[in-house]
Protein backbone atom coordinates (compact mmCIF):
# COMPACT_ATOMS: atom_id res chain seq x y z
CA UNK A 1 0.00 0.00 0.00
CA UNK A 2 1.34 3.44 -0.95
CA UNK A 3 1.80 5.66 2.11
CA UNK A 4 0.66 9.26 2.62
CA UNK A 5 4.22 10.55 2.87
CA UNK A 6 4.91 9.26 -0.64
CA UNK A 7 1.76 10.84 -2.05
CA UNK A 8 2.68 14.29 -0.70
CA UNK A 9 5.39 14.71 -3.32
CA UNK A 10 2.93 14.41 -6.20
CA UNK A 11 0.94 17.22 -7.76
CA UNK A 12 -2.36 17.80 -5.92
CA UNK A 13 -1.88 14.94 -3.43
CA UNK A 14 -5.40 15.38 -2.04
CA UNK A 15 -6.57 13.72 -5.26
CA UNK A 16 -5.34 10.43 -3.76
CA UNK A 17 -5.57 10.79 0.03
CA UNK A 18 -9.19 9.83 0.63
CA UNK A 19 -10.42 10.27 4.22
CA UNK A 20 -12.59 13.25 3.28
CA UNK A 21 -15.48 14.34 5.47
CA UNK A 22 -18.42 11.94 4.86
CA UNK A 23 -16.28 9.39 3.01
CA UNK A 24 -17.19 5.81 3.90
CA UNK A 25 -14.80 3.16 5.20
CA UNK A 26 -16.57 -0.17 5.53
CA UNK A 27 -14.84 -3.25 6.88
CA UNK A 28 -17.09 -6.22 6.24
CA UNK A 29 -15.74 -9.74 5.94
CA UNK A 30 -16.49 -11.54 2.67
CA UNK A 31 -18.14 -8.41 1.27
CA UNK A 32 -18.49 -7.80 -2.46
CA UNK A 33 -15.75 -5.29 -3.26
CA UNK A 34 -16.58 -2.69 -5.90
CA UNK A 35 -14.23 -0.06 -7.31
CA UNK A 36 -16.26 2.87 -8.64
CA UNK A 37 -14.06 4.64 -11.18
CA UNK A 38 -14.32 7.98 -12.92
CA UNK A 39 -11.92 8.10 -15.92
CA UNK A 40 -10.72 11.63 -15.28
CA UNK A 41 -9.03 13.35 -12.36
CA UNK A 42 -10.45 13.56 -8.86
CA UNK A 43 -11.46 17.21 -9.32
CA UNK A 44 -13.61 16.28 -12.33
CA UNK A 45 -15.00 12.99 -11.05
CA UNK A 46 -15.96 14.35 -7.64
CA UNK A 47 -17.91 17.10 -9.42
CA UNK A 48 -20.23 14.45 -10.87
CA UNK A 49 -23.49 14.20 -8.95
CA UNK A 50 -24.23 10.79 -10.48
CA UNK A 51 -20.85 9.41 -9.41
CA UNK A 52 -21.38 10.59 -5.83
CA UNK A 53 -24.91 9.21 -5.78
CA UNK A 54 -23.80 5.70 -6.82
CA UNK A 55 -20.98 5.71 -4.26
CA UNK A 56 -23.31 6.36 -1.34
CA UNK A 57 -26.10 4.15 -2.71
CA UNK A 58 -23.78 1.17 -3.11
CA UNK A 59 -22.36 1.54 0.38
CA UNK A 60 -25.84 1.38 1.90
CA UNK A 61 -26.12 -2.26 0.77
CA UNK A 62 -25.15 -4.72 3.47
CA UNK A 63 -22.32 -6.97 2.35
CA UNK A 64 -21.08 -4.52 -0.29
CA UNK A 65 -18.08 -2.19 -0.08
CA UNK A 66 -17.76 0.56 -2.69
CA UNK A 67 -14.52 2.53 -2.97
CA UNK A 68 -13.46 5.23 -5.42
CA UNK A 69 -10.66 5.59 -7.95
CA UNK A 70 -9.77 8.19 -10.55
CA UNK A 71 -7.33 8.74 -13.39
CA UNK A 72 -3.94 9.73 -11.94
CA UNK A 73 -2.10 12.79 -13.14
CA UNK A 74 1.02 12.09 -15.26
CA UNK A 75 3.51 12.35 -12.39
CA UNK A 76 1.79 9.63 -10.37
CA UNK A 77 1.35 7.52 -13.52
CA UNK A 78 5.12 7.59 -14.05
CA UNK A 79 5.71 6.50 -10.44
CA UNK A 80 3.17 3.66 -10.65
CA UNK A 81 4.70 2.44 -13.90
CA UNK A 82 8.33 2.63 -12.79
CA UNK A 83 7.65 0.92 -9.46
CA UNK A 84 5.08 -1.55 -10.89
CA UNK A 85 2.66 -0.36 -8.19
CA UNK A 86 -0.98 -1.01 -9.18
CA UNK A 87 -3.44 1.88 -9.22
CA UNK A 88 -5.40 1.86 -5.98
CA UNK A 89 -8.69 2.93 -4.41
CA UNK A 90 -8.86 6.00 -2.19
CA UNK A 91 -10.58 4.48 0.84
CA UNK A 92 -8.30 1.51 1.58
CA UNK A 93 -5.50 1.92 -1.01
CA UNK A 94 -6.45 -1.51 -2.35
CA UNK A 95 -5.17 -2.27 -5.88
CA UNK A 96 -8.06 -2.22 -8.35
CA UNK A 97 -7.19 -5.70 -9.60
CA UNK A 98 -8.17 -7.08 -6.18
CA UNK A 99 -11.79 -5.89 -6.45
CA UNK A 100 -14.67 -8.10 -7.59
CA UNK A 101 -16.19 -5.39 -9.78
CA UNK A 102 -14.62 -2.37 -11.44
CA UNK A 103 -17.43 -0.01 -12.48
CA UNK A 104 -16.75 3.02 -14.69
CA UNK A 105 -18.97 6.10 -14.99
CA UNK A 106 -18.29 7.49 -18.48
CA UNK A 107 -19.76 10.69 -19.91
CA UNK A 108 -17.61 11.42 -22.98
CA UNK A 109 -15.65 9.60 -25.65
CA UNK A 110 -12.69 11.81 -24.83
CA UNK A 111 -12.16 9.75 -21.66
CA UNK A 112 -11.77 6.43 -23.53
CA UNK A 113 -7.97 6.34 -23.47
CA UNK A 114 -8.07 7.13 -19.75
CA UNK A 115 -10.17 4.00 -19.26
CA UNK A 116 -7.49 1.84 -20.87
CA UNK A 117 -4.77 3.61 -18.92
CA UNK A 118 -6.58 2.95 -15.63
CA UNK A 119 -6.98 -0.75 -16.46
CA UNK A 120 -3.34 -1.01 -17.51
CA UNK A 121 -2.05 0.80 -14.42
CA UNK A 122 -4.22 -1.53 -12.31
CA UNK A 123 -2.58 -4.58 -13.91
CA UNK A 124 -5.96 -5.64 -15.32
CA UNK A 125 -5.97 -7.13 -18.86
CA UNK A 126 -7.50 -4.65 -21.30
CA UNK A 127 -9.70 -7.14 -23.14
CA UNK A 128 -12.69 -8.78 -21.49
CA UNK A 129 -11.94 -12.12 -23.15
CA UNK A 130 -8.52 -12.20 -21.47
CA UNK A 131 -9.71 -11.90 -17.88
CA UNK A 132 -11.95 -13.75 -15.46
CA UNK A 133 -11.97 -11.21 -12.61
CA UNK A 134 -12.49 -8.45 -11.84
CA UNK A 135 -15.68 -8.00 -13.82
CA UNK A 136 -15.45 -4.63 -15.58
CA UNK A 137 -18.54 -2.69 -16.60
CA UNK A 138 -19.62 0.86 -17.35
CA UNK A 139 -22.59 3.19 -17.28
CA UNK A 140 -23.14 6.86 -18.02
CA UNK A 141 -24.27 8.65 -21.16
CA UNK A 142 -21.51 7.01 -23.22
CA UNK A 143 -23.29 3.68 -22.73
CA UNK A 144 -25.90 4.81 -25.27
CA UNK A 145 -23.32 3.92 -27.92
CA UNK A 146 -20.91 1.51 -26.24
CA UNK A 147 -19.70 -0.17 -29.44
CA UNK A 148 -16.21 1.42 -29.63
CA UNK A 149 -15.54 0.04 -26.13
CA UNK A 150 -17.10 -3.42 -26.43
CA UNK A 151 -13.82 -5.42 -26.39
CA UNK A 152 -12.83 -3.86 -23.06
CA UNK A 153 -15.99 -4.37 -20.97
CA UNK A 154 -18.02 -7.32 -19.75
CA UNK A 155 -21.30 -5.41 -19.84
CA UNK A 156 -22.88 -1.96 -20.02
CA UNK A 157 -25.59 -0.25 -17.96
CA UNK A 158 -27.92 1.85 -20.12
CA UNK A 159 -30.04 4.52 -18.46
CA UNK A 160 -30.39 5.78 -14.90
CA UNK A 161 -28.45 3.62 -12.53
CA UNK A 162 -30.16 3.81 -9.15
CA UNK A 163 -32.16 0.58 -9.35
CA UNK A 164 -29.94 -1.25 -11.83
CA UNK A 165 -26.66 -0.57 -10.02
CA UNK A 166 -28.15 -1.75 -6.75
CA UNK A 167 -29.53 -4.92 -8.36
CA UNK A 168 -26.19 -5.68 -10.04
CA UNK A 169 -24.41 -5.48 -6.69
CA UNK A 170 -27.03 -7.66 -5.01
CA UNK A 171 -26.62 -10.28 -7.74
CA UNK A 172 -22.85 -10.02 -7.38
CA UNK A 173 -23.17 -10.91 -3.70
CA UNK A 174 -25.28 -13.97 -4.48
CA UNK A 175 -23.55 -15.32 -7.61
CA UNK A 176 -19.79 -15.70 -7.78
CA UNK A 177 -19.62 -17.68 -11.05
CA UNK A 178 -18.97 -15.16 -13.82
CA UNK A 179 -20.93 -16.84 -16.62
CA UNK A 180 -23.96 -17.46 -14.42
CA UNK A 181 -23.79 -13.88 -13.18
CA UNK A 182 -23.66 -12.42 -16.70
CA UNK A 183 -26.69 -14.47 -17.74
CA UNK A 184 -28.68 -13.19 -14.76
CA UNK A 185 -27.51 -9.62 -15.30
CA UNK A 186 -28.56 -9.75 -18.95
CA UNK A 187 -32.18 -10.21 -17.80
CA UNK A 188 -32.26 -6.79 -16.10
CA UNK A 189 -33.71 -3.71 -17.79
CA UNK A 190 -31.05 -1.62 -19.49
CA UNK A 191 -28.29 -4.24 -19.30
CA UNK A 192 -26.26 -4.89 -22.44
CA UNK A 193 -23.98 -7.93 -22.40
CA UNK A 194 -22.26 -7.85 -25.82
CA UNK A 195 -21.32 -11.54 -25.90
CA UNK A 196 -25.02 -12.39 -26.26
CA UNK A 197 -25.37 -10.29 -29.44
CA UNK A 198 -24.19 -10.86 -33.00
CA UNK A 199 -22.66 -8.20 -35.24
CA UNK A 200 -22.08 -7.99 -38.99
CA UNK A 201 -20.69 -5.45 -41.45
CA UNK A 202 -23.63 -3.65 -43.07
CA UNK A 203 -22.88 -0.74 -45.35
CA UNK A 204 -20.75 1.84 -43.57
CA UNK A 205 -20.76 0.27 -40.10
CA UNK A 206 -20.66 -2.87 -38.02
CA UNK A 207 -24.20 -3.27 -36.66
CA UNK A 208 -26.25 -5.69 -34.55
CA UNK A 209 -27.67 -8.52 -36.67
CA UNK A 210 -30.61 -10.01 -34.77
CA UNK A 211 -32.70 -6.89 -34.16
CA UNK A 212 -32.69 -7.35 -30.37
CA UNK A 213 -32.93 -4.10 -28.41
CA UNK A 214 -31.80 -2.95 -25.00
CA UNK A 215 -34.18 -0.30 -23.63
CA UNK A 216 -32.78 2.04 -21.00
CA UNK A 217 -33.82 1.75 -17.38
CA UNK A 218 -35.33 4.79 -15.65
CA UNK A 219 -36.41 5.76 -12.16
CA UNK A 220 -40.20 5.74 -12.13
CA UNK A 221 -40.88 7.13 -8.65
CA UNK A 222 -38.55 10.11 -8.73
CA UNK A 223 -40.23 11.77 -5.74
CA UNK A 224 -38.96 9.00 -3.47
CA UNK A 225 -35.81 8.04 -5.40
CA UNK A 226 -32.53 7.73 -3.52
CA UNK A 227 -30.77 10.98 -2.60
CA UNK A 228 -27.37 11.13 -0.81
CA UNK A 229 -27.92 13.41 2.18
CA UNK A 230 -24.30 13.16 3.39
CA UNK A 231 -22.16 13.63 0.29
CA UNK A 232 -18.39 13.69 0.51
CA UNK A 233 -16.75 17.06 1.09
CA UNK A 234 -13.38 17.09 -0.75
CA UNK A 235 -10.14 18.02 1.01
CA UNK A 236 -9.20 20.49 -1.73
CA UNK A 237 -10.76 22.39 -4.60
CA UNK A 238 -12.67 20.60 -7.35
CA UNK A 239 -14.40 21.85 -10.49
CA UNK A 240 -17.89 22.00 -8.96
CA UNK A 241 -17.34 22.28 -5.22
CA UNK A 242 -20.89 22.68 -3.97
CA UNK A 243 -23.98 20.85 -2.77
CA UNK A 244 -26.40 19.40 -5.30
CA UNK A 245 -30.16 18.92 -5.16
CA UNK A 246 -32.16 17.58 -8.10
CA UNK A 247 -35.29 19.47 -9.13
CA UNK A 248 -36.34 17.21 -11.96
CA UNK A 249 -35.07 14.95 -14.72
CA UNK A 250 -35.90 15.11 -18.39
CA UNK A 251 -36.78 17.80 -20.89
CA UNK A 252 -39.41 17.99 -23.63
CA UNK A 253 -38.41 21.19 -25.39
CA UNK A 254 -36.99 18.94 -28.08
CA UNK A 255 -33.83 20.78 -29.15
CA UNK A 256 -32.79 18.59 -32.05
CA UNK A 257 -29.04 18.57 -31.34
CA UNK A 258 -29.40 17.71 -27.64
CA UNK A 259 -28.71 14.15 -26.54
CA UNK A 260 -29.60 14.85 -22.89
CA UNK A 261 -33.10 15.93 -23.92
CA UNK A 262 -33.67 12.47 -25.39
CA UNK A 263 -31.86 10.12 -23.02
CA UNK A 264 -33.25 11.67 -19.82
CA UNK A 265 -36.90 11.51 -20.88
CA UNK A 266 -39.53 11.32 -19.48
CA UNK A 267 -39.87 14.41 -17.28
CA UNK A 268 -40.18 13.61 -13.58
CA UNK A 269 -40.22 16.24 -10.84
CA UNK A 270 -39.68 16.32 -7.12
CA UNK A 271 -42.13 18.31 -5.05
CA UNK A 272 -40.92 21.55 -3.52
CA UNK A 273 -41.29 19.98 -0.05
CA UNK A 274 -38.90 17.17 -1.00
CA UNK A 275 -36.48 19.59 -2.65
CA UNK A 276 -36.50 21.72 0.52
CA UNK A 277 -35.90 18.71 2.76
CA UNK A 278 -32.98 17.56 0.61
CA UNK A 279 -31.48 21.05 0.52
CA UNK A 280 -31.60 21.49 4.29
CA UNK A 281 -30.20 18.01 4.94
CA UNK A 282 -27.29 18.31 2.54
CA UNK A 283 -26.31 21.79 3.77
CA UNK A 284 -26.47 20.74 7.43
CA UNK A 285 -24.38 17.63 6.72
CA UNK A 286 -21.66 19.29 4.64
CA UNK A 287 -21.24 22.95 5.54
CA UNK A 288 -21.16 23.88 1.87
CA UNK A 289 -21.54 27.58 1.11
CA UNK A 290 -23.08 27.05 -2.33
CA UNK A 291 -25.89 24.86 -3.60
CA UNK A 292 -27.02 24.04 -7.13
CA UNK A 293 -30.49 22.92 -8.14
CA UNK A 294 -29.94 20.37 -10.89
CA UNK A 295 -32.08 20.01 -14.01
CA UNK A 296 -31.79 20.40 -17.76
CA UNK A 297 -33.76 23.68 -17.70
CA UNK A 298 -34.18 25.07 -14.20
CA UNK A 299 -36.90 27.61 -14.90
CA UNK A 300 -39.14 24.89 -16.36
CA UNK A 301 -39.80 23.67 -12.81
CA UNK A 302 -43.57 23.68 -12.31
CA UNK A 303 -43.43 25.41 -8.91
CA UNK A 304 -41.10 28.34 -9.59
CA UNK A 305 -42.79 30.48 -6.95
CA UNK A 306 -42.10 27.77 -4.38
CA UNK A 307 -38.51 27.46 -5.58
CA UNK A 308 -37.91 31.21 -5.37
CA UNK A 309 -39.36 31.16 -1.85
CA UNK A 310 -37.00 28.30 -0.94
CA UNK A 311 -34.04 30.26 -2.31
CA UNK A 312 -34.89 33.16 0.01
CA UNK A 313 -35.14 30.78 3.00
CA UNK A 314 -31.79 29.11 2.26
CA UNK A 315 -30.04 32.46 1.95
CA UNK A 316 -31.54 33.56 5.27
CA UNK A 317 -30.83 30.31 7.16
CA UNK A 318 -27.43 29.33 5.68
CA UNK A 319 -26.12 32.47 3.94
CA UNK A 320 -25.38 30.33 0.87
CA UNK A 321 -24.97 31.14 -2.79
CA UNK A 322 -27.47 29.41 -5.08
CA UNK A 323 -27.06 28.56 -8.74
CA UNK A 324 -29.68 27.59 -11.28
CA UNK A 325 -27.95 26.11 -14.33
CA UNK A 326 -29.48 25.97 -17.79
CA UNK A 327 -31.83 28.94 -17.69
CA UNK A 328 -34.11 29.31 -20.72
CA UNK A 329 -34.67 32.68 -22.37
CA UNK A 330 -38.42 32.11 -22.81
CA UNK A 331 -38.92 31.33 -19.10
CA UNK A 332 -36.79 34.06 -17.55
CA UNK A 333 -38.68 36.56 -15.39
CA UNK A 334 -37.82 39.69 -13.45
CA UNK A 335 -38.88 37.93 -10.24
CA UNK A 336 -36.45 35.07 -10.86
CA UNK A 337 -33.67 37.50 -11.76
CA UNK A 338 -34.16 39.45 -8.54
CA UNK A 339 -33.99 36.22 -6.53
CA UNK A 340 -30.70 35.30 -8.21
CA UNK A 341 -29.29 38.78 -7.58
CA UNK A 342 -30.04 38.37 -3.89
CA UNK A 343 -27.37 35.65 -3.90
CA UNK A 344 -24.75 38.20 -5.01
CA UNK A 345 -24.56 36.64 -8.47
CA UNK A 346 -24.32 39.25 -11.23
CA UNK A 347 -23.82 36.96 -14.24
CA UNK A 348 -26.48 35.06 -16.18
CA UNK A 349 -25.90 32.35 -18.80
CA UNK A 350 -28.24 31.44 -21.65
CA UNK A 351 -27.91 28.92 -24.48
CA UNK A 352 -29.44 30.62 -27.51
CA UNK A 353 -27.40 28.52 -30.02
CA UNK A 354 -28.14 30.57 -33.17
CA UNK A 355 -28.67 34.23 -34.06
CA UNK A 356 -31.53 33.93 -36.56
CA UNK A 357 -35.08 32.79 -35.93
CA UNK A 358 -34.90 30.48 -38.97
CA UNK A 359 -31.84 28.58 -37.78
CA UNK A 360 -33.28 28.29 -34.27
CA UNK A 361 -36.37 26.75 -35.89
CA UNK A 362 -34.07 24.18 -37.52
CA UNK A 363 -32.86 23.06 -34.10
CA UNK A 364 -36.31 23.59 -32.51
CA UNK A 365 -35.04 26.11 -29.99
CA UNK A 366 -38.35 27.96 -29.86
CA UNK A 367 -37.09 31.45 -29.09
CA UNK A 368 -36.81 34.66 -31.12
CA UNK A 369 -34.40 37.57 -31.28
CA UNK A 370 -37.13 39.74 -29.79
CA UNK A 371 -37.29 37.46 -26.73
CA UNK A 372 -33.51 37.57 -26.39
CA UNK A 373 -33.35 41.36 -26.46
CA UNK A 374 -36.23 41.59 -23.98
CA UNK A 375 -34.33 39.37 -21.53
CA UNK A 376 -31.17 41.46 -21.96
CA UNK A 377 -33.22 44.55 -21.16
CA UNK A 378 -34.87 42.94 -18.12
CA UNK A 379 -31.66 41.45 -16.75
CA UNK A 380 -29.59 44.62 -17.05
CA UNK A 381 -32.37 46.84 -15.73
CA UNK A 382 -32.34 44.98 -12.41
CA UNK A 383 -28.56 44.88 -12.05
CA UNK A 384 -26.90 42.03 -13.99
CA UNK A 385 -23.65 43.36 -15.47
CA UNK A 386 -22.47 40.27 -17.36
CA UNK A 387 -24.45 38.01 -19.68
CA UNK A 388 -23.00 34.86 -21.24
CA UNK A 389 -24.44 33.28 -24.38
CA UNK A 390 -23.74 29.92 -26.01
CA UNK A 391 -23.75 29.66 -29.81
CA UNK A 392 -23.32 26.72 -32.17
CA UNK A 393 -21.75 27.05 -35.61
CA UNK A 394 -21.80 24.48 -38.40
CA UNK A 395 -25.47 23.57 -37.92
CA UNK A 396 -27.36 21.87 -40.78
CA UNK A 397 -28.68 24.39 -43.37
CA UNK A 398 -26.49 27.15 -41.90
CA UNK A 399 -25.62 29.98 -44.31
CA UNK A 400 -23.11 32.81 -44.15
CA UNK A 401 -25.85 35.24 -43.11
CA UNK A 402 -26.47 33.08 -40.02
CA UNK A 403 -22.82 33.57 -39.03
CA UNK A 404 -22.94 37.30 -39.68
CA UNK A 405 -26.11 37.45 -37.59
CA UNK A 406 -24.12 36.35 -34.52
CA UNK A 407 -22.12 39.55 -34.70
CA UNK A 408 -25.16 41.71 -35.44
CA UNK A 409 -27.20 40.23 -32.58
CA UNK A 410 -24.25 40.72 -30.24
CA UNK A 411 -24.10 44.40 -31.19
CA UNK A 412 -27.83 44.76 -30.54
CA UNK A 413 -27.54 43.04 -27.16
CA UNK A 414 -24.60 45.25 -26.24
CA UNK A 415 -26.58 48.36 -27.18
CA UNK A 416 -29.60 47.28 -25.10
CA UNK A 417 -27.44 46.25 -22.15
CA UNK A 418 -25.33 49.39 -21.97
CA UNK A 419 -28.42 51.60 -22.11
CA UNK A 420 -29.58 50.25 -18.72
CA UNK A 421 -26.86 52.08 -16.76
CA UNK A 422 -27.91 50.30 -13.60
CA UNK A 423 -24.52 49.10 -12.40
CA UNK A 424 -21.17 50.50 -11.43
CA UNK A 425 -19.00 48.43 -13.78
CA UNK A 426 -19.33 48.30 -17.60
CA UNK A 427 -21.82 45.86 -19.08
CA UNK A 428 -20.12 42.84 -20.69
CA UNK A 429 -21.16 40.03 -23.00
CA UNK A 430 -19.31 36.72 -23.08
CA UNK A 431 -19.79 34.44 -26.08
CA UNK A 432 -18.94 30.74 -26.01
CA UNK A 433 -18.98 29.39 -29.56
CA UNK A 434 -18.81 25.67 -30.27
CA UNK A 435 -19.13 23.56 -33.41
CA UNK A 436 -22.24 21.49 -34.00
CA UNK A 437 -21.58 17.90 -32.91
CA UNK A 438 -24.05 15.30 -34.23
CA UNK A 439 -24.84 12.92 -31.38
CA UNK A 440 -26.41 9.44 -31.31
CA UNK A 441 -30.10 9.27 -30.42
CA UNK A 442 -30.88 12.80 -31.54
CA UNK A 443 -32.85 14.00 -34.58
CA UNK A 444 -29.62 15.40 -36.03
CA UNK A 445 -27.65 12.15 -35.56
CA UNK A 446 -27.55 11.68 -39.35
CA UNK A 447 -26.07 15.13 -40.05
CA UNK A 448 -22.39 15.77 -40.79
CA UNK A 449 -19.73 17.45 -38.70
CA UNK A 450 -18.57 20.45 -40.67
CA UNK A 451 -15.12 20.48 -42.22
CA UNK A 452 -12.62 22.05 -39.82
CA UNK A 453 -11.35 24.45 -42.49
CA UNK A 454 -14.91 25.78 -42.91
CA UNK A 455 -15.26 26.19 -39.15
CA UNK A 456 -12.00 28.13 -39.03
CA UNK A 457 -13.26 30.49 -41.74
CA UNK A 458 -16.44 31.13 -39.76
CA UNK A 459 -14.35 31.80 -36.67
CA UNK A 460 -12.36 34.43 -38.60
CA UNK A 461 -15.56 36.12 -39.80
CA UNK A 462 -16.92 36.35 -36.26
CA UNK A 463 -13.68 37.62 -34.72
CA UNK A 464 -13.28 40.23 -37.46
CA UNK A 465 -16.76 41.69 -37.02
CA UNK A 466 -17.45 41.28 -33.31
CA UNK A 467 -17.20 44.47 -31.18
CA UNK A 468 -13.80 44.66 -29.54
CA UNK A 469 -14.83 46.37 -26.31
CA UNK A 470 -17.01 44.73 -23.66
CA UNK A 471 -17.35 41.46 -25.60
CA UNK A 472 -15.29 38.34 -24.85
CA UNK A 473 -15.34 35.41 -27.28
CA UNK A 474 -14.19 31.84 -26.67
CA UNK A 475 -14.11 29.05 -29.24
CA UNK A 476 -13.72 25.38 -28.40
CA UNK A 477 -11.01 23.26 -30.05
CA UNK A 478 -12.47 22.11 -33.38
CA UNK A 479 -10.13 19.12 -33.70
CA UNK A 480 -11.04 17.95 -30.21
CA UNK A 481 -14.73 18.29 -31.07
CA UNK A 482 -14.22 16.27 -34.27
CA UNK A 483 -12.58 13.46 -32.30
CA UNK A 484 -15.44 13.45 -29.83
CA UNK A 485 -17.95 13.08 -32.69
CA UNK A 486 -15.94 10.19 -34.15
CA UNK A 487 -15.83 8.35 -30.84
CA UNK A 488 -19.48 9.07 -30.02
CA UNK A 489 -20.75 7.90 -33.46
CA UNK A 490 -18.27 5.05 -33.84
CA UNK A 491 -18.62 1.29 -34.24
CA UNK A 492 -16.48 -1.64 -33.08
CA UNK A 493 -13.70 -0.88 -35.54
CA UNK A 494 -12.74 2.12 -33.41
CA UNK A 495 -11.71 -0.09 -30.48
CA UNK A 496 -8.38 -0.87 -32.12
CA UNK A 497 -7.84 2.84 -32.87
CA UNK A 498 -8.55 3.74 -29.23
CA UNK A 499 -6.15 1.06 -28.02
CA UNK A 500 -3.47 2.19 -30.48
CA UNK A 501 -3.86 5.85 -29.43
CA UNK A 502 -3.54 4.81 -25.78
CA UNK A 503 -0.33 2.89 -26.52
CA UNK A 504 1.01 5.91 -28.40
CA UNK A 505 0.48 8.03 -25.28
CA UNK A 506 -3.00 9.58 -25.60
CA UNK A 507 -4.32 10.63 -22.19
CA UNK A 508 -6.83 13.23 -20.96
CA UNK A 509 -8.10 14.01 -24.45
CA UNK A 510 -10.76 16.33 -22.99
CA UNK A 511 -8.00 18.59 -21.63
CA UNK A 512 -6.50 21.17 -23.98
CA UNK A 513 -3.16 20.84 -22.14
CA UNK A 514 -2.92 17.13 -23.00
CA UNK A 515 -4.94 16.64 -26.20
CA UNK A 516 -2.64 15.64 -29.08
CA UNK A 517 -4.35 15.38 -32.46
CA UNK A 518 -1.20 13.96 -34.08
CA UNK A 519 -1.35 10.87 -31.88
CA UNK A 520 -4.88 10.16 -33.06
CA UNK A 521 -3.99 10.80 -36.70
CA UNK A 522 -1.25 8.18 -36.41
CA UNK A 523 -3.56 5.74 -34.61
CA UNK A 524 -6.15 5.92 -37.41
CA UNK A 525 -3.40 5.54 -40.01
CA UNK A 526 -1.74 2.61 -38.21
CA UNK A 527 -5.04 0.73 -37.91
CA UNK A 528 -6.24 1.52 -41.42
CA UNK A 529 -9.50 3.13 -40.28
CA UNK A 530 -10.98 6.02 -42.27
CA UNK A 531 -12.12 8.54 -39.66
CA UNK A 532 -14.09 10.60 -42.18
CA UNK A 533 -16.77 7.88 -42.27
CA UNK A 534 -17.82 8.95 -38.78
CA UNK A 535 -17.86 12.67 -39.60
CA UNK A 536 -19.84 12.61 -42.84
CA UNK A 537 -23.60 12.77 -43.23
CA UNK A 538 -25.10 9.31 -42.66
CA UNK A 539 -27.72 8.10 -45.16
CA UNK A 540 -31.06 7.60 -43.41
CA UNK A 541 -31.23 4.11 -44.94
CA UNK A 542 -28.02 3.09 -43.13
CA UNK A 543 -28.43 1.00 -39.99
CA UNK A 544 -26.63 2.71 -37.11
CA UNK A 545 -24.04 1.15 -34.76
CA UNK A 546 -26.08 2.15 -31.68
CA UNK A 547 -29.50 1.14 -33.01
CA UNK A 548 -29.79 -1.83 -30.63
CA UNK A 549 -29.52 0.56 -27.65
CA UNK A 550 -32.83 2.37 -27.18
CA UNK A 551 -33.33 5.57 -25.17
CA UNK A 552 -37.06 4.89 -25.28
CA UNK A 553 -37.63 7.43 -28.05
CA UNK A 554 -38.43 5.82 -31.40
CA UNK A 555 -36.28 6.03 -34.52
CA UNK A 556 -39.44 6.98 -36.42
CA UNK A 557 -39.81 10.09 -34.26
CA UNK A 558 -36.13 11.03 -34.60
CA UNK A 559 -36.32 10.69 -38.37
CA UNK A 560 -39.50 12.77 -38.52
CA UNK A 561 -37.80 15.49 -36.48
CA UNK A 562 -34.75 15.37 -38.76
CA UNK A 563 -36.93 16.00 -41.80
CA UNK A 564 -38.70 18.85 -40.01
CA UNK A 565 -35.31 20.33 -39.12
CA UNK A 566 -34.26 20.44 -42.77
CA UNK A 567 -37.50 22.33 -43.49
CA UNK A 568 -37.07 24.65 -40.47
CA UNK A 569 -40.35 23.45 -38.94
CA UNK A 570 -40.90 23.52 -35.18
CA UNK A 571 -42.38 20.91 -32.85
CA UNK A 572 -44.03 22.41 -29.74
CA UNK A 573 -43.23 21.28 -26.21
CA UNK A 574 -45.68 18.49 -25.41
CA UNK A 575 -46.26 19.88 -21.93
CA UNK A 576 -48.06 22.81 -23.53
CA UNK A 577 -49.62 21.06 -26.54
CA UNK A 578 -50.60 17.66 -27.87
CA UNK A 579 -48.39 14.57 -27.61
CA UNK A 580 -45.49 14.80 -30.08
CA UNK A 581 -45.37 11.01 -30.45
CA UNK A 582 -41.77 10.49 -29.34
CA UNK A 583 -42.62 6.96 -28.20
CA UNK A 584 -41.48 7.20 -24.58
CA UNK A 585 -45.03 6.53 -23.35
CA UNK A 586 -45.15 3.13 -25.10
CA UNK A 587 -41.55 1.97 -24.58
CA UNK A 588 -41.42 3.08 -20.94
CA UNK A 589 -43.90 5.54 -19.44
CA UNK A 590 -44.69 9.25 -19.60
CA UNK A 591 -46.25 11.17 -16.68
CA UNK A 592 -47.26 13.99 -19.04
CA UNK A 593 -49.08 11.59 -21.39
CA UNK A 594 -50.74 9.78 -18.49
CA UNK A 595 -51.87 13.07 -16.93
CA UNK A 596 -53.35 14.38 -20.19
CA UNK A 597 -54.84 11.24 -21.64
Automatic annotation (TrEMBL):
Top-level lineage group: Bacteria
One GO molecular-function entry: iron-sulfur cluster binding
Domain Radical SAM core: 237-476
InterPro entries: CHP03960_rSAM, Elp3/MiaA/NifB-like_rSAM, Radical_SAM_N2, rSAM, rSAM_horseshoe, rSAM_sf
Protein name (Swiss-Prot/TrEMBL): TIGR03960 family B12-binding radical SAM protein
Amino acid sequence: MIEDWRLIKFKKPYFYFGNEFNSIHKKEKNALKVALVYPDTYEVGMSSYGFRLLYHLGNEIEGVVVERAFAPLPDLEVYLTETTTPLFSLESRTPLNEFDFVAFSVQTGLDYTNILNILDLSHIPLHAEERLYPIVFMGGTSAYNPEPLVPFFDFFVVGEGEFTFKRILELGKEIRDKETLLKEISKLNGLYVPKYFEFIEDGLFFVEKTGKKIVKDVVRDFEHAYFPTKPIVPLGSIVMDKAYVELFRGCTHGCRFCEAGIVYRPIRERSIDTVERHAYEVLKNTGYEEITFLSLSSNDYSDMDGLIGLMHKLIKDFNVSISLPSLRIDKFTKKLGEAILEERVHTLTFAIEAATDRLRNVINKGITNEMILDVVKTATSIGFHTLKFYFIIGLPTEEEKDILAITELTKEMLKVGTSAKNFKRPFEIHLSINPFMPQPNTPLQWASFEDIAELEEKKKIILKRIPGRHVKVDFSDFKMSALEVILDRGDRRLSKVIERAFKLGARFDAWSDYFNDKIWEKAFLDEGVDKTIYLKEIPISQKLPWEHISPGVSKTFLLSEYKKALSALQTPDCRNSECAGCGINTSLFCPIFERKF
